[in-house]
TrEMBL record:
GO aspect biological process, one term: P450-containing electron transport chain
Gene3D superfamilies per the UniProt record, alphabetical: 3.10.20.30
UniProt protein name: 2Fe-2S ferredoxin-type domain-containing protein
Record keywords, A-Z: 2Fe-2S, Iron, Iron-sulfur, Metal-binding
Keyword presence, Ribonucleoprotein: no
Domain 2Fe-2S ferredoxin-type: start-end pairs: 3-97
Highest classification ranks of the organism: Bacteria, Bacillati, Bacillota, Bacilli, Bacillales
Entry keyword Iron-sulfur: yes
GO MF annotation terms: 2 iron, 2 sulfur cluster binding; electron transfer activity; metal ion binding
Amino acid sequence: MKHEITFNPSGKKVVVSRGTSVLAAARRAGVHIPTRCGGKMGCLMCKIEVDQTAEKRLSPPEEPEQRKLGSLVRQGIRLACQAKIEGTVTVSIPEDKLKAAIRKKLEAAREGESDELW
Ligand code: FES
């Protein structure tokens, strides 16, 4: 059975087989999700955000993933390398912290709130 997954904020979509990891689907869609461990749950860089209605369309987090993420699981955070697609779903990739800081500085500078860029 095939399911469509949408990646926000880009809106890119791909159709994959049930049981495909979100990380593998992202690669197939040309969406970058950072990773250093190659999907072995060692780097925790592949976090994605899933809203509560979509949680049922991903495999439930198993004990090792829950242990690694702690309370983040209750906030809808999953590891893309561990979450398997079980239905049509939309996930969000959190903005890189460095990019977010730069974007905020640029926005503040543009609005005249800050005379200094750095
Ligand atoms: S890819 Fe490293 S924890 Fe998921």
